[in-house]
Design brief:
Number of helices of chain A: 4
Distance between the termini of chain A: 23 Å
Number of domains of chain A: 1
Largest interface: A-B, 23 and 23 residues
Strand content of chain A: 25-35%
Shape of chain A: elongated
Strand order of the largest sheet of chain A: 3-1-2-4-5
Largest sheet of chain A: 5 strands, mixed
Oligomer: homohexamer
Number of strands of chain A: 5
C-alpha cells in the first residue's frame, strides 16, 4: 500500500494569555512568566495540517487540497483568526491556550471531517522558534 | 566613501487592536474590519533594524552588531514584547498601533542612540505576508 | 513628511516559455537554454507589491492592506494564476515572459489603481534564488 | 544502534496539468479545478530526499552528501527540471502528475541507488503551502 | 494519552574540519573533499530540539519552553558557539564532527536533563540544504 | 527608461576570525568578543548579487541569470567556499573579514565583469539574523 502524507499550511493571528484562575497572580507569573500578562499578547500562528492515507488511483490524490484548505478555513481560521483565544473561543474557557492545547483542540475540530481510514496530524508554530505536533490520542 | 548598510533581525510578540475612540464601533469595524476586535488579537512582529554608514577602518564595522542587538533589546523588545500595545505601551495611548505607526515609533526610540552621521531604517513584519519600512522623516 | 513603504506578499503558479518566434529553434536554445523548452515549464511566482506614501493620520494606514490584497487578487492572481503566460495572457502574446517583463506588466496593471501621490514597486521571485524588482519608468 | 536520518534539499521547475484522458473536460474541471488548464501551469518543486541508516564509524557519515546530491541530480533534476511532466516525462504518460504521484515516482527512481539497509523518504513541496511525503510501500 | 511533541529552535556558529588523523591527506581529501581543508571552514548550525511527552493537565505544557531554551543554551550553545569543534570541543577530539556525529553528541548532552518519560529528538541543519535527525539509540 | 534590478542568491561556507595583529589579545577580545576566537569559527554565508539596468528589448533580460550565476561561481564561490578567509583568501591577509569588508571585496571582484552601464549591489547574510549591503563607492 502506498501511504502518502499530504500537508497544507495555513495561519491565523490571535491574542492569548497563559494563566489559571485558581492560582494567584504571583504563582501564574512564576509558572508562565510574561506569557501571563493580564493584558494579553499575541502571535501569528502558522498551522500545518497533515493527512496520511492511500493515493486514490483515479485522481492521484490522498485528499483534494482544495477540500482540505476549505476545512481548515471553516473549522480553524474562521474560529480563531483575529480572536482572543481566552475570551472568544469556547474551547479555551476552561483550558489554558498553550500551543500544546491549541494543537489538540484543532485536531479534535478537524478529525470528524477527515475520512476514518486516514490519519491526521497537526503542527502548530507559536513563533518561528517554537512549535508543537499532535497526531491524536494513542489507543 | 564606502557606505555599507548593516541589518539586524529581532522579534517580539504583542497584542493590539485597531480602532479610534472617537469613532462608533460600526465605523471602526467598517474601516479596520476584524482588526478592530475589542478583545484584541496579536502578532509575532519580526523587526529588521538597518544602520547605514562608513566602515570604520580600524574595526571593519559600521556599527558593532553586539551594540545594535543590545539597543534593540533595551529600547524595543523590553518595551513591546508580550505586551498589549494599546494598553501597556504609552506611545500608543493616543496613536493607532498600525504597522506603519509602530515602525515610526521604533525609529523614534532608536534614533537618539545611533550616531548622527549614520542613517537608520526600520522594517517591520506584522505577518509573514505584510510588512512596512520607515527610514525617517524627509526634511 | 513621514513616508512609509507598505508591502504585501502574494503568489501565483504559471507555465511559460522563453523564445522569440522570429528566431530559429537553435538560436532560441542558444540564448534561453532549457527555458526555451517548447513544451513549457513553470514556476511558483512569489510577488511582493510595495506602496510608498504618507501615513493617513486618521487611520494610521498608507493604504488599507485589505484593499491592496484585493487589487492584487483582481488584477494579478486572477489573470495569471494557473495560466500559461505565453498562450493565455494577452500581455505576453508578443512580449517574452521573462521575470523582468512580468514585473513590468504587473506594475502597469496595478499602477492605475494606486493613488497618484503614492509610489509603486514590484518584486517578483521566479524561483527562491532568482528575483527582480521594478519601480516604474524614470521620467 | 545509532540510526540517523540525513536529508538533502534540491529543486526543479516544471509544467504540468491534472486531467484524465478518459474523462470529459467538464469532469476534469470539476475534479481538478484550474489545475486541469489544458495550456498547463507550473511550479518550483522543492524536494527533500531523506536517507535513514547507521552512522559509518569510519567516516561519521550515513551517506556521503556529495553522493546523494549527485544521485538527485542524475535521477531527478536532469529528468524533471524545466520539463513538461505530462508530455516529456515517460513515467507520467499514463499517471496523473499530482504531487502524491510525483513523490512516488521519485522514490522509485532513487530507491535502487540507496543501500538496501537504509530507508528512503521523499518530501515534495508543490508550493510553499502544499507538500507531500512518501516513505515507500508498506510490506 | 495525549502525546505532543514540543520543538525549540536555536543556533550556533562553529568551525570544523572533516578528517582522520590515521589517514593520509590524499585519502582525507578523497573521502571528505573540500570539507577536509586543513585551515577549517564553518557553518551556521540551526538546531531543533524536540521533546515528546504527555501534556501536564495543570500547566498545559509538555515541557516549559523557557526551561528547554535554558537547557539548550547551557549544554549546547555555550559549549559550541563560536568554537572550533575539532580543537575546542572535547567530544570531537577523537570523533569526526560530521553533522551526524554532532547530532548524536547534542542528544547525549541533553538526554540526562530531560524527564525519563519523555522522548528526545535532535534535528541539525549544517546548511540550509543539508540536515540530519537523531532520536536516540534503539534498544 | 525601464530600469529593473535582477538578483541571484548563492552561498558559501567559510571560517574566519576577527582580530588585529597589532592589538593585544585582550584588546581583540574586548572589541570583537567571541568572534576573535584564535581557533576560528564559521558561517554559512548567504549572498545576493543584484544588477540594475535596462531590459534588453530583444531578450527581455537585464542580464542573463545563467551568466550571473557563472560569474558568482567563478569569482566568489570558488574563491571563498570551504575556505579559511583569514588564512587562505589573499584579500583578507591585511583586512579584517567582517561582513562589511567581505561585501566590499565581493563587489570589487564582480564589478569588472558587469557591464559599465549597470549598477551592482551586494547583500551578504553572515547569519540568518545579521546581514549587510554594499552598492559601491559614492563618487
Amino acid at each position: 500500500m502506498k501511504q502518502v502524507t499530504v500537508s497544507r499550511k495555513a495561519h491565523f493571528n490571535a491574542a492569548h494569555r497563559l494563566y489559571r484562575k485558581d492560582w494567584s497572580d504571583t504563582k501564574n507569573e512564576e509558572v508562565f512568566g510574561k506569557c501571563s500578562n493580564p493584558h494579553f499578547h499575541g502571535h501569528n500562528y502558522e498551522l500545518i495540517v497533515s493527512v496520511t492515507g492511500e493515493i486514490d488511483p483515479e485522481t492521484g490524490y490522498v485528499i483534494d487540497m482544495k477540500v482540505l484548505k476549505e476545512l481548515i478555513k471553516n473549522y480553524v481560521e474562521d474560529a480563531f483568526d483575529h480572536k482572543n483565544l481566552n475570551e472568544q473561543v469556547p474551547e479555551f474557557s476552561s483550558l489554558i491556550p498553550t500551543a500544546e492545547n491549541i494543537s489538540v483542540v484543532i485536531w479534535e475540530k478537524l478529525r470528524p471531517h477527515i475520512a476514518n481510514k486516514n490519519d491526521l496530524s497537526i503542527t502548530l508554530y507559536e513563533t518561528p522558534r517554537n512549535y508543537v505536533q499532535f497526531s491524536g490520542t494513542n489507543q
